[in-house]
Amino acid sequence: MMPDQNAGPWPDLAGRKTEFGHVLPVRVYYEDTDFSGIVYHASFLRFIERGRSDYIRMLGIHHHELDEGSEDERVAFAVRHMEIDYLKPARIDDLLEVETRVSAIKGARMILDQRVMCAGETLFTAMVTVVVISRDGRPRRMPAQLKAAFEADQS
């Protein structure tokens, strides 16, 4: 049986849908930690970036298509603001779950609620505001197809 070409050989590589929204498994590697084996604070930002990227990929929205102008203009997402809270440490070899869901969509911006979990415990939370921008960095209203994909996922 041939695997689904969109899913790739590893169907969960981009995560999966859950009651929270989207969840992406992430293993903590040596490169993610400081000298003590505890996850370095900036690594959490990379983990949640992967979660956001794979979440929108799962909705059928691809960064390269946005950059090619599939929405009538070449656009991209950019992080505008973050509120983050480090609650507990993660350690080398931990298996984490990065959870992502849309909290609100308003004009050119979208607010995402993200958290990093380990064995059912919340280690890190973030409220991330991303904006749609043109190639020259100017804000753009969320294209209708993108907004519809996010809203359909919320229902």
Describe this structure in words.
- With 155 residues, the protein is an alpha+beta fold.
- The chain is built from 3 helices and 6 strands, in the order ββααββββα.
- The longest helix is centred in the first third of the chain and has 18 residues.
How far the N terminus sits from the C terminus, by CA atoms, comes to 33 Å
Radius of gyration of CA atoms, rounded to a whole number: 16 Å
- What about the largest sheet? 6 strands, antiparallel
Estimated structural class: alpha+beta
Number of strands: 6
Number of helices: 3
Helix content: 10-25%
User: What global shape is seen?
Assistant: globular
Average pLDDT metric: 89
Helix and strand pattern: EEHHEEEEH
Q: Which strand order spans the largest sheet, edge to edge or round the barrel?
A: 1-2-4-5-6-3
β-strand percent reads: 35-45%
Q: Please mark out the parts with pLDDT under 50 across 5 or more consecutive residues, or reply none.
A: 1-5
Features:
155 residues, six-stranded antiparallel β-sheet, disordered N terminus
Question: Brief overview, please?
Answer:
The protein has about 160 residues and is an alpha+beta fold.
Task: Give the arrangement of secondary structure elements.
Elements: E1 16-17, E2 22-27, H1 41-58, H2 63-68, E3 75-86, E4 95-106, E5 109-118, E6 121-134, H3 144-154
Antiparallel strand pairs: 1-2, 2-4, 3-6, 4-5, 5-6
